[in-house]
Protein 1
Amino acid sequence: MQQYLTSYSDIVSIVGDIVNLRIPDDPELEKRVRNRELAVIEEGGRTVSLAQIIRLERNLVSLQAFAGAKGISNQASVRFLGAPMRAIYSDNIFGRVFNGSGQVTDGGPDLSHEPKVEINGPTVNPVSRVLASRMIRTQVPMIDVFNCLVESQKIPIFSVSGEPYNKFLARVAVQADADVVIFAGLGLIFDDYYFFRQSFEDAGILSRTVMFVNLASEPVVERLMVPDLALAVAEKFAVEESKRVLVLLTDMTAYADAMKEIGIAMESIPSNRGYMGDLYSQLARRYEKACDFKGAGSVTILSVTTMPGDDVTHPVPDNTGYITEGQFYLHNGVIDPFGSLSRLKQHVIGKETREDHSQIMNVMIRYYSEGVDAEQKQAMAFDLSDYDQKLLKFSGLFRQHFMDLDVAMPLEAALDLCWKILSQCFDPDEVVIKQVLKDKYWPT
């Protein structure tokens, strides 16, 4: 990393974690100072904070102070490092925990001497991408059977505060058939961070997991760096080592709130509910890192997006829905089959999976929908037909065996269970499935 030895001390203002510095009118210096590069804020002969350049306006430079601007005075000086943020990348990072500055925080051996990779690189050229065609099995039937997770997919979990989305995300990490898991925690309380780490350790996957964590008590500025660090490392594993990488992000609403806070400190003009006008672009820039690389591995992104007030029109879930390829809707402690959608599932259903997958999936959702209608009729004291009674039995079994978040089973076992439940509730002639499939899979 090139270091410019000259320090500049003309600090104009400090707003929140933003330090505004005026540099001399020197064309050569202005050429060397680039957006998103790092700097060091020093005072009294010691380093106060690492910082990143986030805006350049002629000779006025705005920097984000990673350790926060608390304690920094106008007498401090700034020294530019001449390089962007880099993430440590080697096989030695497995099982380790990093903060939003890319530094090890787990008390283990120092890794500063390890190779590094630049973050904030461009997304992959479309001609270098492979059409999504491989399934990531999670052993969660509400995903594997009804809304498959596909390699290179970017898909959020829409939920609200209080729902067990972190527990669900940890389950997916443990059970998914990925080579590498990259976890990015954004504004987590310590209990949630400890839960994730303990879950990975107990399941024995810590040896193929890398964690980047920004706690709620840590600087907001670092929260903005965590997804970039995680995705840069994920991309490197996919391209250099042909790994199938699963990236888990929680919670992207906390990430967007951090962007809003920084934007307000920079006196940017807000667009919708206080969020900046580039919210869509900033989210898309991260999500578009999901890719199946030609002749190499893949990066798949599964994120959590909490919806304040359960409002799907809130700017964060609203913009996310335009970028991603479907969503899993976690509601009342279960994955809602009606609010969830995977737009890439057709690339693998019936191609990578069993021939009956498509039809059994459609029939199960259809009868569950009719079962919910029958439950409403029952609640309103309407007379129920014999067929309604069958639907009531079916909807109860469906919830018990598929919608419970603790249920885990391979896809083939889940498909067999679908046939079994259908046979327990209906006669063969009542089930609208191709006869050739009923002849082959209907339990005898």
Note: Residues 87-346 form a domain with the Rossmann fold fold (CATH 3.40.50.12240).
Protein 2
Amino acid sequence: MSEETKVEAATEATASTDSATKEAAPKKGKKKWPIVVGIVVVVLIAAGAGFWVWHEQPSFCNAICHTPMDPYNQTYDQADNTAGVDKWGNEVSNTHSMLAVTHKASVEDGGAGATCMSCHVPQLSEQISEGMNWVTGNYVNPLEERSLEDLVEARGIPADEFCLNAACHSNGEGGAMTRDDLIALTADMERNPHVAQHGANECSDCHKAHRASVNECSQCHNDADIPEGWISVADEKKLNMPA
């Protein structure tokens, strides 16, 4: 084989190799893009899951929309069974008297626990209204206390179901606890607070989430039993509360 023939053969071999390499390159690219897309999808799912978990926490409400939520978040963050303060800064001898603290503590004890979203189930109409009020500054600070009827109005359910529902306070048989069940639970007390002797009260008349709970019976009965950390109606009137 002449030198000229050898050079031509080598040139053709190189050209063939280059051509094969160019043809193979797109194929490698096609194999990589599903992996990239898969990684992006996984990252988005993880980010979405993380956002949803944060969405369930009090810090979300506090950080995103609800400027007046600072004191509510602070009461929620306090340890259970210790001295603390309520949403207005009043001293509370035992934080266990505030439902926001005890409901959070239940998860630390192996229970289901509770966050803001566990009790305050937002409806789309409420979220839109609250979002508009936040953007325009049309809100009061500190927030006014609301009754259970106010809190369930958008959901269209009876006020009792805010607390007495199968997911929160059940009868042990898969159903919601009733007022009769409550009466039975406190039947051993000298003066049963759940017996509606003077008309039915809302749960929130006594049980407070972000301030010390109040024994409403003490309004008339000086000998009414005041649980640890709770306060009497007389002491409630001494609290520094917004008008």
Note: The longest helix spans residues 3-55.
